Amino acid sequence: MAEAESTVINTNVKQKDPNEALVIAVTTRAIFNLEEEHQLFLTKGKEEYVKYQQVNEDKPLEQGTAFAFIQAVQFVNEKLLERNPEEKGLFDVIILSNNSPESGMRIVNSAKRHGLEISRFCFVSDEDSTQYLKSHNVKLFLSADRTDVCNALQRGVSAALIFQQEVQTPSTQLRVVFDGDAVLFSDETDRVFREKGLSGALEYEMAMEAVPMGEGPLKAFAMHLGKMRKKFSQENSPIRTYLLTARSGRNMGIRAIKTLREWGLAIDEAFFMDGAPKGPLLSQIQPHIFFDDGLHNIQGAQDIGIPSALVPCDC
């Protein structure tokens, strides 16, 4: 691959140490609503798209699906700095975009207008933006492009696919919901289920009960989030995490709990649904983001205004 044409813009946001911060990279279509602009790009081409963005560079973009999640991350940083003004283990949010520098000014202006503390804006002009994830020490990547997400996962970075949707406005407390198999955990039991059915999966889980499950694609991000969560007391934490899995608690929950214990990952609330719909609980929790590998679960969450992110299992 040829050397990518890229531009990095630093803002006057408080400087964070990327070696200690929890770095989250989002694309422009994940954090802002750029659906009309994207259609213009697809139908009229890059030149018309760039012209449109330049003409409208002082017109703020509307909020996208991941916007509230980034706002909540910012709230956590505020609470961390209230505890310790010298805190270095903060969230660090960067925008990683396939826009060119010429069309990127509207993105920068929109982030400023919305009061988002974005530390870095990286415009890579149609190159594979995921090649820069490791150099920025990214722990979570959110994109509206499936190819980007799959590339990130193949590079060993926790990543998920964002769909543009209407979202409800959750509380300021950062609430993150993880599915279990193929998200936090590996898909080993799912594979057994597909090959041998429910009885085979139950038999496998019973035989493997004492063996921790393998790592799923979002395990690394969950561990970093859990480490940040431990800085606060249970009562006053600005972070709350959830496990919401189709597993049954009676037959398949024990191994999941033992795995979390082996990892040292504390989850605030865990729900073993035994295949029941997840929508009613999601509606009660009102998370800023819900990670799942099942498109039907994602669509059900979207229908009730829950910001959702698909973790593809078929990349």
UniProtKB/TrEMBL annotation:
GO biological process, one term: adenosine metabolic process
One term under GO cellular component: cytosol
Domain of life of the native organism: Eukaryota
InterPro entries associated with the record: 5-nucleotidase
GO molecular function: 5'-nucleotidase activity; magnesium ion binding; nucleotide binding
Protein name: Cytosolic 5'-nucleotidase 1A-like
